[in-house]
Structures are given as C-alpha cells and as structure tokens.
Specification:
- The protein is an alpha+beta fold.
- Helices cover about 50% and strands about 25% of the residues.
- It has nine helices and four strands.
- Strands 2-1-3-4 form a four-stranded mixed β-sheet.
- Helix 1 packs across helix 2 and helix 2 crosses helix 4.
Length: about 180
C-alpha cells in the first residue's frame, strides 16, 4: 500500500513528477489553492503545460475546481478530491516508514484523535461535492437549482482578558 501512489502516477502520466508535485501542493491546503497560488508554490511560470497537467488530473478525477466564497469575493480553487490520494498522503505517508509494519492498531488509535475528526469531516465534504446530484435527490431537491461552494467568513473576535481568538468557516449550498 505504501508504494501505490508512485506506481499509479508512473503508470498514468509520462510527466508523473509534475502531476505528483501538483497533487502534493494542493493536498497541503484542505481548501485547495488558486491557480496563482499553485504556480507560486511550485515556482512555475504560467504556461500551457500547467493547464494540461491540471486538466489531466481533473479528467482522472483526482482534483476538481471548487468555487470559493469569502465575503463578497468569489474565486475558484483547485482541490484534491480523490479519497485514496487524500488518505495516502495523510495517513500512509504521514505515518512514517516503520509505523504501519510494527503497529497493527495504528489506524484504530488514530480514529480517536482530533486530526482524524478534521480529516473525516473534510473527506465527507468532498463526498458531498462529488455526489451533489444524489444528495439533492435524497433530500427531494432535484428541481431546485443549487450551486455548491466552499465559503469562509472570518469573524475576528479577540477577547483581551482571555486571549481567545475565534474564526468561523465552513461549507454551504446556495439556491
């Protein structure tokens, strides 16, 4: 299981190292990255090759373009949506080389952590994005036009005496 990621990308793409770099960069941020942020992160100038790599990854179902709303500003983020890739990068590569071989209860122990709770919520959000049509049907909303988007509303609230800073964010579906 540890080598599946590399084997898959080498089999699918002749320029697999570029595709892998894009996936790894996008997976670092759960919300994904804008095209501009991605280019900066990879230190790549704009050009047709990047668009081809993004198109390849999108056609394979590894990434998707997700509308993102922050206040009144709307932009598009590229985001990893493939469950295997997200699981592999977070829980297989993130586990360390010896952990999986030595610790048979590793994943069971992770289930009670905050990291797992956050990851599973994000994974659920991706499933909803990928199956929006079925979710609408299950809720009886087939005839309602819906645009799925991630939203973020920063509510900066600093309580001086407690030193508490809170930020609200989440996902929404708008009519």
């Amino acid at each position: 299981m540890r080598n599946e990621f590399d084997v898959m990308f080498k089999a699918l793409f002749s320029e697999h190292s570029q595709h892998e770099a894009i996936i790894r960069a996008l997976a670092e941020k759960r919300r994904g990255l804008t095209r501009k942020e991605l280019l900066e992160k990879l230190d790549i100038s704009t050009g047709g090759r990047v668009d081809l790599w993004l198109q390849d990854l999108e056609q394979c179902g590894f990434i998707s373009q997700i509308p993102f709303v922050e206040g009144k500003k709307k932009t598009t983020y590229y985001r990893v949506i493939d469950e295997f890739l997200l699981f592999h990068l977070r829980w297989i590569e993130g586990a360390g080389k010896g952990v999986l071989a030595d610790d048979h209860d590793h994943f069971l122990l992770q289930k009670s952590t905050q990291a797992y709770e956050s990851w599973s919520g994000f994974a659920f959000e991706n499933v909803v994005f990928q199956h929006l049509k079925q979710v609408k049907a299950a809720l009886g909303l087939q005839k309602i036009s819906v645009e799925a988007a991630v939203w973020q509303k920063k509510v900066a609230k600093l309580e001086k005496d407690k030193g508490v800073f809170s930020v609200e964010c989440g996902s929404s579906f708008r009519k």
